[in-house]
Specification:
The structure is a single chain. With about 160 residues, this protein is mainly beta. It is built from 1 helix and 12 strands; from the N terminus they run αββββββββββββ. The chain has a 6-stranded antiparallel barrel.
Length: about 160
């Protein structure tokens, strides 16, 4: 049963969706104060000091819920209840680390989308996006900061250094 559960988690969890391809081949380590696995519904719940590490990808949250359909992850939602949920990864060799924090981080791997809600901060190198709500389409590399009643978005884009 333990081996089946370990294989299930490694194959279905989307933490490496936006990371180095080699990360998907690395073992995944998940720690939490408690966890519930419902194999019938495909819903998994991790609560309390949740930490997920796989290669260069790291996620910390107070609560994590994953939903699977036919052995494929459809949704993973990380909640920052006491402090923001945080996600970091190295998208590709030579890139700066992608770092995101928010009250809620939603992963939709089949659509290559991350939705961040509540006091969002996304940085990569010296570039950053900050606002109440950010949608990041990894496939098309588009960051959207929709209009919000709770505040404006701030974008900081550092110019490339000029070479002589």
């Amino acid at each position: 049963m333990y081996r089946m559960l370990k294989l299930f988690l490694i194959l279905l969890f989307p933490i490496c969706l936006f990371a180095l391809p080699i990360d998907q081949e690395q073992p995944m380590h998940i720690t939490a104060n408690s966890s519930v696995f419902n194999f019938k519904t495909g819903s998994n719940i991790y609560e309390g000091a949740v930490k997920v590490d796989q290669g260069t990808s790291h996620l910390t949250a107070d609560r994590l819920i994953t939903n699977n359909n036919k052995h494929k992850i459809e949704e993973a939602i990380a909640y920052g209840i006491n402090k923001p949920a945080e996600y970091s990864t190295l998208p590709k060799a030579g890139d700066a680390i992608f770092y995101a924090k928010a009250k809620e981080i939603q992963f939709y791997p089949t659509q290559s989308i991350i939705i961040l809600k509540g006091n969002v901060l996304v940085t990569q190198g010296k570039n950053s996006f900050q606002g109440p709500f950010i949608v990041y389409n990894m496939k098309d590399q588009i960051v959207t900061t929709p209009a919000s009643k709770t505040g404006q978005a701030t974008v900081v884009i550092e110019p490339d250094k000029l070479t002589s």
